[in-house]
Amino acid sequence: MPESLVNTAPRSGAWKWYVCGMMLLATMLNYMDRQTLAVTISDINRELHLNKTHYGNIEFAFGMAFAIGGLLTGLVADVISVRWLYPAVLAGWSIAGFATAYAEQIGQLFMPTGASESWPPGYVGLLICRTALGFFEAGQWPCALVTSQRLLAASDRPLGNGVLQSGAATGAILTPLIVEAMVSDVPGTWRGPFQAIGVLGMLWIVPWLVIVRPNDLRRQEPTVPVPSAGHGAEQASSESRPRDGLTFWRRFAVLLITVITINACFHFFRAWLPTFLREFHDYNRDEVNYFTSAYFAAAGIGCLCVGMLTKYLIRCGWSVERARLATFIACACLTALSTVAAELPRGPLLLALLLVIGFGALGLFPNYYSLTQELSARRQGLVTGVLGFSTWVCTGVMQKYVGHQVDQTHSYAQGIFFAGLLPLIACAALVLFWDRPAAESPR
Question: How far apart are CA 69 and CA 71, in angstroms?
Fold first, then answer.
């Protein structure tokens, strides 16, 4: 069949959800590459002679690279077709993840002149590999959000974003299971998961290029939806209302507060939960791996449930804004249970509360992404990149501070207590400063 006909043939109604499924897989691989270090860090620390400060610095380097990568990729995503940009950044982070298995050898090649004992080769290698990983992984979000913005209507975006974000939980569920299957007390076995996950990432590229055609993700100017009284009619969202410069910047400030606080909460638990359970509460490797999978399973369920609940409330007559705000506040209340978890001893109640916190922590993201997609149809990549840059600078500094504090105090209680409260700040910003339609009553 001629290429021109292939590229113009009509799409089925389900096609946009196939693309969302591909983005779910990309997010899954993104988090598998990222989370492998958190799950194996106790074994790596022992073998490569690292401490919590080293690990905090590695997370800091990852965060700074993620910030820069997100900003640059965001700029590029508004200019270059994401059909090609997406697989390019995915290949980059897959190679960086694979190279992590050889951190000590890489560190020996690039050891700083006159390095002291505080800079062992494995530490240097991990800094290099995780910096590269952060830079390329940052491209996931500008590419994914540009894609879903161009594919989905406003009322479908919370669910679509929930689907792609649930890939984070899926990847984090699978990672401990892969580690459990491949890693033992035998030195060097921690390298296997990095190698396997890196190879899986490269395999994603082929189906993406098959499913998405060159002209599928062209930018389209936003149209004003026409409300209808019929059941399930598309409701006008805030993206259809005219905005002046002041409104744009007020919304941007709200989103900046939101993205920093919800990411600080989620990434605290992502990075430190396995070591918290293993080294502070004396759970063994098997118990920690299985519980970490359960934690991210709860997070993934929360993400999908929020997307589906938001869409259900809209169908029931709630405005888009009201449905999003209600589900966002509910999730923030769940993460605030960290104030209780911080004081609990080892046991079932602690684990149960952590599962609830995970449910809420990832459930915050679908509606946040939907809000970012209403700032600019032309500059979605730039908006995502700037917000990502800001949040990863802040979370990177946070991880560095947490690593130092844990080495000093030998306790995670303070971090857990405050991490779960941060999304409540986002709730206050959304309630007070995000503009909403004058009439919030159901149509």
Answer: 5
DSSP conformation letters of 234-274: PPP-GGGS---HHHHHHHHHHHHHHHHHHHHHHHHHHHHHH
Q: Residues 87, 208: contact at Cβ < 8 Å?
A: yes
For 360-379, the pLDDT digits (tens) are 998 999 889 888 878 776 77
What pLDDT, in 10s, does the model give residues 34-84?
Answer: 889 988 988 898 898 888 888 888 988 998 898 899 889 888 888 888 889
- Cα 322 from chain centre: 24
Q: Give residue-wise pLDDT tens across range 193-204.
A: 999 999 999 999
Q: How many residues does the chain have?
A: 443
Of 288 and 333, the structure prediction assigns the larger pLDDT to 333
Instruction: Supply the pTM of this predicted model.
Output: 0.69
Rounded to whole angstroms, what are the CA distances from 158 to 148, 213, 243, 298, 385?
Answer: 10, 24, 22, 18, 20
Both tokens of residue 209?
């290029």
| Mean pLDDT of the region 121-142 | 92
User: Quick one: pLDDT at residue 224?
Assistant: 39
Question: What whole-number distance in Å separates Cα of residue 247 and Cα of residue 394?
Answer: 25
Q: Are 182 and 192 in contact (CB under 8 A)?
A: yes
Q: Distances in Å between the alpha carbon of 429 and those of 215, 380, 410, 418, 425?
A: 38, 21, 34, 18, 6
Helices (H), 100-156: 103-109, 121-137, 140-151
For 351-406, give the DSSP string: HHHHHHHHHHHHHTHHHHHHHHTTT-SS-HHHHHHHHHHHHHHHHHHHHHHHHHHH
Q: How far apart are CA 71 and CA 74, in angstroms?
A: 5
Q: How many CB atoms lie within 10 A of CB 245?
A: 7
Taking the CA atoms of 10, 14, 16 and 18 in sequence, report the sign of the dihedral they define: negative
Question: Which burial class, exposed, middle or buried, applies to 221 when counting CB atoms under 10 A from its CB (0-12, 13-18, 19+)?
Answer: exposed
Alpha-carbon span 321 to 342, nearest angstrom: 33
For residue 234, pLDDT beyond 50? no
Burial of 399 per CB tally in 10 Å (0-12, 13-18, 19+): buried
Could you tell me the pLDDT band of residue 1, with boundaries at 50, 70 and 90? very low
Q: How far apart are CA 50 and CA 58, in angstroms?
A: 11
CA distance 417 to 100: 32
Nearest to 164 by CA among 21, 307, 30: 21
